[in-house]
Write a structure and sequence with these properties.
This protein is an alpha/beta fold. A five-stranded parallel beta sheet has the order 4-5-6-3-7, sandwiched between helices. A two-stranded antiparallel sheet has the order 1-2. The longest helix has 24 residues. Helix content is 56%, strand content 7%. The chain folds into three domains: 170 residues, CDP-alcohol phosphotransferase transmembrane (TM) domain (Four Helix Bundle (Hemerythrin (Met), subunit A)); 141 residues, Rossmann fold, CATH 3.40.50.300; 68 residues, Orthogonal Bundle (Helicase, Ruva Protein, domain 3), CATH 1.10.8.
């Protein structure tokens, strides 16, 4: 498969892992200045690949695993080597390793016994990683330059201990395909990890970076601002099926979660959901209700939605609602609720034309680390179902097939996959 620019952050991750053996060799030989320099280069590479991935929308699935793996290998190797040399307490290294074993073991057990796991690093986990890196860097600086680091090492070591224990006990694992409500890594008010019925986070591809704005640039900008600003807001987005409403709402939850807010996505078209599922959502910072018109006219649902709106408004929290029609024409019977829906901004979500669908396919492919040439993209549009959901599902299949066959996405390859996917007469 042809490499694309989206693989640059992944290549930097691999280079960071390649620095680990030279770091260990320098430490064992007493070359602390060189070891410190290499660790600083590795730390810079971590910042660089993250910035590149976000700045140019070069996030890929493999990158989502490769980056934390590189960080973990580097830090675990540093702690073990420093403990071996007597430069770091063995008990602190045991705590750090024990935390990782708890998280990895829990993830494996969850994956095999319950559901495929989607692990998202919480804020406390990210803080723990930062403290670990600072701690190891201070030790190397002390050894390289003879600086008195004891007070700082004691303080940062205590931070490593506390955040290791807390993050190990509060690891948040979540099945990515269940039906339900809350976003990964968030807690509800009233206690840690109190789960709502059918809890789940947004799909892993639901991010603003891989959404083609097209005619919906104003809506995209409004949602990006709403996800990152803690202020009262009400937004109604309406448009036909497969216009991108669901993707945008899930991306809003993903962005709000990354910004440290408690956010929830609620697919109201899910027949398994009951009005009681909304209880407790008033404690969240942002709630996204998808396909609200699917429950319009149901008295129990309308009362539950009204109560949620009032709870969020009282806390100056944010609410985003999507439907196939505008707020005055969505079919709600409760007058007070219908009037509440019109209290905020209203946006119409317009479907993409064929040219924009091609650009959207290529944007999603690049986000996955795939190179989808123009001719292959045009072939997809002319020989497959043109609904965006079907096209993106087909792109997922092409991703898997090309990876398995180690083939580029050429027209002959796409034709073969389409022929295999076609129903047999």
């Amino acid at each position: 498969m042809k490499l694309s620019l989206a693989q640059i952050p992944n290549a930097i991750c691999v280079l960071r892992m390649a620095l680990i053996p030279p770091i260990v060799l320098a430490l064992l030989r007493g070359g602390y200045p060189m070891a410190l320099l290499l660790v600083m280069v590795a730390a810079f590479s971590d910042v660089l690949d993250g910035w590149l991935a976000k700045r140019f929308s070069w996030q890929t699935h493999i990158g989502g695993w490769l980056d934390p793996l590189a960080d973990k290998l580097l830090l675990v190797t540093l702690f073990v080597t420093l403990a071996w040399l007597g430069l770091s307490p063995v008990w602190l290294t045991a705590v750090v390793l024990g935390r990782d074993l708890v998280i990895v073991g829990g993830a494996l057990a969850f994956n095999f016994l319950i559901a495929k796991v989607k692990a998202e690093p919480s804020n406390i986990s990210k803080l723990n990683t930062l403290f670990q890196l600072i701690y190891c860097t201070l030790i190397l600086a002390a050894m390289a330059f003879g600086l008195p680091m004891e007070p700082a090492l004691t303080l940062v070591g205590a931070a490593v201990l506390v955040t290791s224990v807390v993050s190990g006990l509060c690891a948040d694992l979540e099945p990515p395909g269940a039906a339900g409500l809350r976003s990964p890594g968030r807690q509800m008010a009233g206690g840690p990890m109190q789960q709502l019925p059918l809890a789940v986070g947004p799909a892993d591809y639901a991010v603003f970076e891989n959404f083609l704005p097209g005619p919906n640039a104003a809506l995209l900008h409004a949602l990006e601002e709403l996800a990152g600003v803690a202020s009262r807001a009400m937004l109604w987005a309406w448009g036909p099926a497969e216009s991108g409403r669901t993707h945008l709402l899930q991306a809003t939850v993903t962005a709000a979660d990354a910004a440290g807010y408690r956010a929830a996505f609620v697919p109201l078209a899910d027949p398994a959901l009951q009005p009681s599922a909304l209880e407790g959502l008033g404690a969240f910072d942002l709630v996204c209700l998808d396909d609200a018109d699917q429950v319009a006219g149901d008295p129990d649902w309308e009362r539950a939605l009204f109560a949620l709106f009032e709870a969020l408004r009282a806390r100056r929290a944010r609410l985003v609602v999507s439907a196939q029609r505008g707020p005055l024409h969505a079919g709600f019977k409760l007058p007070d609720l219908a009037s509440r829906w019109t209290s905020g901004a209203t946006f119409r979500v317009r479907p993409l034309d064929d040219e924009q669908k091609q650009a959207a396919l290529q944007r999603r492919a690049a986000w996955r680390g795939l190179d989808l040439p123009d001719d292959a993209a045009r072939y997809l549009l002319t020989h497959a179902t043109r609904g965006t959901a079907a096209l993106f599902a087909l792109l997922d299949r092409l991703d898997s097939e090309s990876l398995a066959a180690q083939k580029r996405l050429t027209v002959p390859f796409v034709r073969r996959v389409l022929d295999e996917a076609a129903p047999k007469s």
